[in-house]
Design a protein that fits this description.
The complex is a heterodimer of chains A (about 475) and B (about 450). With about 475 residues, chain A is mostly helical. Chain A has 23 helices and two strands. In chain A, about 65% of the residues lie in helices and about 0% in strands. The termini of chain A are close together. In chain B, the strands form four sheets. Chain B has a six-stranded parallel β-sheet with strand order 3-2-1-4-5-6, sandwiched between helices. Chain B has a six-stranded parallel β-sheet with strand order 14-13-12-15-16-17, sandwiched between helices. The model of chain B has no long low-confidence stretch (mean pLDDT about 85). At the A-B interface, helix 10 of A face strand 2 and helix 2 of B.
């Protein structure tokens, strides 16, 4: 294992994080929040110094990066980014417990949007900006960002791309990794800028527009009001609802549009299924909640918004869907597990994996009926090889096992009232593991994760990281045999 | 620059590797899914698994705006078909690996013209020519010619008790007036571009640019014995050996070719001139080699299909005091290993081809004020020797070299003007139509303008 290379990269990531803290710092200076500004300055300095020391001490002897190194690098980078990203909250005193601050930061970077804050409106602008900016950075990926801005991508950088970008099959849009990541970040930035402009047009101020655009782009979902987005106009809610849906689509498809292959965009099977799922969910929920709201326009808006928010694993909300009928709640919980498209900023299992698993099950059934059938699984017009198929199947299995493990561990928490514990724990595990944010009952859209004990919060923090990095990087890093020299 | 490489066998992978190092946008196509997977993981490329002759596959790879299309699958016909399709679909330049037609120059040039190929490459023939170059001056490790000039690049190693141990280059120049320039010195792991104060040591590997007339005098100066090669023993009858044997026989050498496969031996007898002695037997057997007189042969060349065999049998030949041993090694990992273990003359067909492709890509990329003619990588790719033709719009014509400020690690090693070769000093100037030889370390030179620091 190339330890030097791994920690060298971690050091570089920290230096970049220190620079990124400039944005919330400027925000807190503009709003005159000196205590917060102080927190950011200290945290940025700490990150920069530690990053510098790591880079200095761990000059790699060779540049070898194999699959193992790629996975571990990504996990380590995310851990250090979270550890240092939590500092401003504690130093400025806005979140007194470091574990709470870490939960909040990880929730930001993993684009979960789950919060332990009970009174979000009392937070400083700087801290709110940092939380949401973390969504934006974490959405596309920290190391992907570094690949995009460094002059030369090392050989075998594919391992890092694969470890950090979500989805079963990772394709580069252009031959060089650096160019690919740059193109993706440009698309991402331009789309975010459009969001900001649209929100500004509807009368939000710049700060609110930025926070919400970051939350939408990263499909994160931190809001700055106690009632989420309920207080904003219908226009804003529609803009964000459609925005989230757009950021839940594979970014490679947007590149196809840019280079003029519009037909390729619409040919994507994953996009078709994604739109199909959204459409069906909206229809079911519309019928189910029509009685609550009465007017068609309002019913449609709320059901589209909530569906879009949950399937893209953002977690914004315009209503307290905790009070919705059970059918709608079940639909939403199901959407949490499905998640957005591969190669987007969304979390969850991903639509493409769902398609592949369903096709494989169909094939297996066919094999039972006609034992001699020769069958292969095709996806997006191409045959999937056995390695990919097995990978997707075992990922799905690990995913389910880990979900229940988290659920199980949360049940040890005695702080949750017994009558709601089942629903709360189940949805908390689902919402964190899938990077959604709000669950149901106590952790519903208007609730918070403050009710959990510190140990449960750590478990949920790990769950969020597992979900964002798609399990393997973190799992491998936490396995002792990865580190023991043999 | 966008480049598509079809066929990623040994040669293809090396081309992909070299071109990605040059930071080109490389798209690789191969039929073998395992190869494609390795490519994806190892190099900064897009790799497709598919048939490079297929319209839809080429379309997907985006052949219509490709500048350079290289087809190096194992089959000539496939390569030609790929290039034909690619050219028709809009690829600007096409390069095909064509081996068999080489026996017949007429049909090759016909196909080249009809298919509108920019270049037809034959790695085996190139390797044979490189080996022949070495056999002409066996005292050197490597001899490379620059196009149409009297200058050569030779690599040689100072002996254990070299008279030049501790002599600085400045003193060497004062003592001897011959036209040569020591451009690179490889010592252990390091490669230096030496200045006048640099002191030589025994065992240094030197890269020298020299006029071909004074090579023998140089050997004298450096205290290296000059060997003449008459009898050559070749192990392994493959394509390379066929080309090499023909070249050698044409130049009055005695060739003994050993291969273990009786069928192959008979085929070789049929194709090659009668003067060649073909022995059917196991070339790895020391007994057989002794019987066939390895002790009296002047040069021993191992060209079997297995690198490991080539390396081992070369060591045996060295131990039998054969004056010149040449080894064909294709695998890059083994290449480094063999060099470290002490084999000096190693030829790698894929490296040769990769150099040609890199040169070609650079020439396409930039031809401002100059034009790349030749490119050789030196000391395992850590330095490069390049030959440029000076075009009339080069901005520094007529400026004395001492007034040009060159980048670190860049050296003007030679100028050839018409039939005269100049080893330049500070007062020399570059003129239009000159061919200038540049040595560069750690820097990618696209045109002559790149050597000047601003």
């Amino acid at each position: 294992m190339n330890y030097r290379m791994i920690f060298n990269t971690a050091g570089k990531v920290l230096r970049v994080e220190a620079l990124l803290m400039a944005l919330p710092l400027v925000v807190s200076l503009i709003y005159g929040e000196w205590q917060t500004a102080y927190g950011f300055i200290i945290a940025a300095l700490a990150a920069f110094v530690v990053g510098y020391i790591l880079v200095y001490l761990c000059k790699p002897k060779n540049q070898f990066m194999y699959a193992k190194e790629g996975l571990v690098t990504v996990a380590i980078a995310w851990i250090v980014v979270s550890v240092f990203g939590a500092l401003p909250f504690t130093i400025s005193g806005e979140i007194s417990s470091y574990i709470d601050a870490l939960f909040e930061t990880v929730s930001g970077f993993t684009t979960t949007g789950a919060s332990i804050l009970t009174d979000v409106e009392s937070m400083s602008h700087g801290c709110l900006m940092w939380r949401s900016f973390a969504h934006w950075i974490g959405g596309m990926g920290v190391l992907v960002f570094i690949l995009a801005i460094t002059s030369k991508s090392p050989d075998r950088s594919m391992h890092i791309l694969r470890a950090e970008m979500p989805g079963p099959i990772i394709d580069k849009v252009v031959p060089r990794a650096k160019d690919t990541t740059l193109i993706l970040y440009i698309i991402y930035s331009v789309m975010t800028a459009i969001m900001v402009i649209l929100l500004l047009c509807g009368g939000m101020d710049l700060f609110e527009s930025l926070v919400h655009a970051f939350g939408t782009a990263g499909t994160g979902g931190f809001s700055i009001k106690a009632d989420g987005l309920a207080g904003y106009s219908a226009y804003h809610q529609w803009v964000i609802a459609i925005g989230m849906l757009c950021f839940g689509v594979n970014f490679n498809l947007y590149y196809l549009i840019i280079i003029g292959k519009v037909a390729g965009f619409f040919k994507s099977r994953e996009l078709l299924v994604y739109v199909g799922i959204v459409f069906s969910a909206v229809v079911i929920i519309c019928f189910n909640i029509y009685d609550i709201y009465g007017s068609f326009a309002e019913t449609l808006r709320h059901s589209v918004f909530q569906t879009s928010s949950i399937i893209t694993t953002s977690g914004f909300s315009t209503v307290d869907f905790n009070n919705w009928p059970t059918l709608s709640k079940i639909v939403l919980v199901t959407l949490m597990f499905i998640g957005g498209c591969a190669g987007s900023t969304a979390g969850g299992l991903k639509v493409s994996r769902l398609i592949i698993v369903v096709k494989k099950i169909g094939n297996d059934l066919k094999k039972v009926l006609h034992p001699r059938t020769a069958n292969i699984v095709k996806f997006e017009g191409k045959r999937l090889d056995d390695a990919t198929l097995n990978g997707v199947s075992s990922y799905t299995l690990v995913y389910i096992v880990l979900f229940f493990a988290i659920f199980f561990l949360l049940s040890f928490d005695t702080g949750i009232p017994t009558n709601v514990a089942m629903e709360t724990n189940f949805t908390a595990a689902a919402a964190c593991f899938n990077n959604v944010g709000p669950g149901l009952s106590l952790v519903g859209p208007m609730g918070s994760y403050a009710c959990y004990s510190p140990i449960s919060k750590i478990i949920l923090t790990i769950a969020m990281l597992l979900g964002r990095l798609e399990i393997y990087p973190l799992l491998l890093t936490l396995t002792p045999t990865t580190w023991i020299k043999k | 620059m966008k480049i598509i490489v079809v066929g990623c066998g040994k040669i293809g992978v090396t081309i992909v590797e070299s071109l990605t190092k040059e930071r080109h946008d490389v798209i690789a196509i191969d039929v073998n899914p395992e190869v494609v997977e390795t490519l994806r993981n190892t190099y900064d490329v897009i790799a497709f698994c598919g048939n490079g002759t297929e319209y839809s596959q080429l379309k997907e790879a985006g052949v219509e705006n490709t500048e350079l299309f290289i087809a190096v699958t194992g089959s000539d016909e496939l390569n030609m078909l790929c290039c034909f399709a690619a050219k028709r679909m809009g690829a600007k330049h096409t390069v095909a690996r064509i081996r068999d037609l080489e026996n017949n120059d007429e049909s090759l040039s016909f196909m080249k013209e009809q298919l509108d190929l920019s270049l037809a490459i034959n790695p085996e023939r190139m390797a044979a020519e490189a080996m022949y170059g070495i056999l002409k001056l066996p005292s050197a490790m490597k001899v490379e010619k620059f196009s149409g000039s009297r200058l050569e690049m030779i690599e040689l190693q100072l002996g254990k008790n070299s008279p030049l141990n501790g002599v600085s280059l400045m003193d060497l120049r004062k003592r001897h007036k011959e036209k040569f320039l020591i451009c690179t010195v490889e010592r252990g792991e390091e490669v230096y571009i030496p200045n006048g104060l640099f002191k030589l040591q025994s065992g240094d590997k030197l890269g020298i640019v020299i006029s071909d007339r004074v090579v023998l005098k140089l050997l004298n100066v450096l205290g290296i014995e000059n060997i003449q090669v008459k009898d050559v023993m070749i192990i392994g009858a493959g394509t390379v050996s066929n080309y090499l044997a023909k070249l050698l026989v044409a130049n009055r050498h005695n060739v003994k070719l050993i291969d273990h496969n009786p069928k192959v031996c008979e085929e070789v007898c049929e194709v090659l001139p009668d003067k060649i002695t073909v022995i059917c037997g196991n070339g790895m057997s020391q007994e057989l080699l002794r019987e066939e007189g390895i002790a009296n042969t002047d040069a021993f060349i191992s060209l079997t299909g297995r690198d490991e065999d080539n390396i081992l049998i070369s060591f045996y030949a060295s131990s039998q005091k054969v004056p010149k041993v040449i080894t064909k090694v294709n695998n890059e990992e083994l290449l480094g290993l063999a060099t470290n273990l002490g084999l000096s003359s190693i030829i790698s067909p894929r490296k040769i081809v990769a150099d040609v492709m890199v040169k070609y890509a650079r020439a396409l990329q930039n031809s401002m004020g100059s034009q790349i003619e030749t490119l050789y990588s030196l000391s395992n790719g850590r330095a490069e020797a390049l030959e440029f033709k000076v075009l009339p719009d080069f901005a520094y014509t007529g400026v004395p070299l001492k007034e040009m400020k060159l980048h670190d690690g860049v050296l003007i090693a030679g100028i050839s003007r018409g039939r005269t070769a100049i080893i330049p000093s500070g007062d020399d100037v570059i003129q239009p139509d000159d061919k200038v030889i540049i040595i560069a370390e750690g820097k990618r030179i696209l045109s002559l303008t790149d050597i000047i620091a601003r």
